[in-house]
């Protein structure tokens, strides 16, 4: 990033005063561990349009006007839904075949770690983000984005200093090219208004050789033709099948696209750039 350019900052600090020597030693060790996990994102380059938006730099809101309006119209943008998401709604994913947050985070860490800078796209209230940020030795810094301000508010409360959560549209990311070592998205791609654009942006912001892991929902049973279903498909509905998602990722430049886990409607796909 050029000198004087606006930066997004987040620091974690632990202060120990007036403690016995043994306690101070423990605090120093804890501080060192926290520092290694703290989201040092002040060196993440932004796109020109993001740099030119003061609100983005000061408030961590990188959405353009159309994305903000879309968020307000979506049920995901409601504070009540964001509050209820991880307290009940997310648990219903088990019926679709999702293995649960712990297993999802473990799979993501296995595929993506170790990596320096991780982007968690469509993070929701930060349920998986928190586990990835705290996974020992996995990621140096974690940045989470969601286009719902209500979801990001929940995520910030959950994540504290372990990760940075920002409002952003996955199809119009504010980050410059090739700034992330790994990208992840759990249960998000089928909700995107334009999945292809979302995959384009994840690919653009991933460094060459970087790793991606995306979990999403596909139809349990298919009827009719894939072409007809895909043409009529709307956001927040399953994709045709896992092969359709793989082809979508390959079409934007991802390589070594492979299904790593599938159960009922749940599918997890890894890839590299």
TrEMBL record:
Position of the signal peptide: none
GO terms of molecular function: S-adenosylmethionine-dependent methyltransferase activity
GO-annotated biological processes: methylation
Pfam families reported in the protein's UniProt record: Methyltransf_11 (PF08241)
Keyword Ligase among record annotations: no
Residue span, Methyltransferase type domain: 119-213
Domain of life: Eukaryota
Sorted UniProt keywords: Methyltransferase, Transferase
PANTHER family recorded: METHYLTRANSFERASE, OS06G0646000 PROTEIN
Name of this protein: Methyltransferase type 11
Organism name: Ostreococcus tauri
């Amino acid at each position: 990033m050029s000198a004087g350019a606006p930066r997004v900052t987040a620091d974690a600090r632990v202060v120990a005063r007036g403690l016995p020597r043994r306690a101070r030693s423990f605090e120093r060790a804890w501080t060192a561990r926290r520092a290694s996990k703290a989201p040092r994102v002040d060196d993440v380059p932004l796109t020109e349009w993001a740099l030119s938006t003061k609100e983005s730099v000061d408030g961590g809101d990188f959405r353009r006007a159309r994305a903000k309006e879309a968020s307000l119209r979506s049920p995901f943008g409601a504070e009540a839904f964001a509050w209820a998401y991880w307290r009940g709604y997310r648990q219903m994913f088990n019926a679709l075949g999702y293995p649960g947050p712990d297993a999802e985070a473990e799979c993501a860490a296995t595929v993506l770690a170790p990596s320096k800078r991780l982007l968690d796209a469509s993070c929701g209230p930060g349920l998986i983000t928190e586990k990835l940020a705290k996974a020992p030795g996995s990621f140096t810094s974690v940045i989470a984005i969601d286009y719902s301000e209500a979801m990001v508010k929940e995520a910030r409360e959950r994540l504290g200093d372990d990760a940075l959560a920002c409002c952003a549209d996955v199809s119009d990311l504010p980050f410059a090219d090739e700034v992330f070592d790994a990208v992840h998205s759990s249960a998000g791609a089928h909700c995107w208004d334009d999945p292809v654009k979302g995959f384009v942006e994840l690919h653009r912001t991933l460094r060459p050789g970087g790793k991606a892991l995306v979990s999403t929902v596909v139809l349990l049973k298919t009827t009719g033709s894939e072409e007809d279903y895909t043409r009529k498909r709307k956001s927040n509905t399953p994709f045709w099948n896992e092969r359709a998602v793989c082809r979508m990722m390959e079409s934007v430049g991802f390589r070594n696209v492979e299904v790593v886990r599938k159960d009922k409607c749940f599918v997890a796909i890894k890839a590299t750039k």
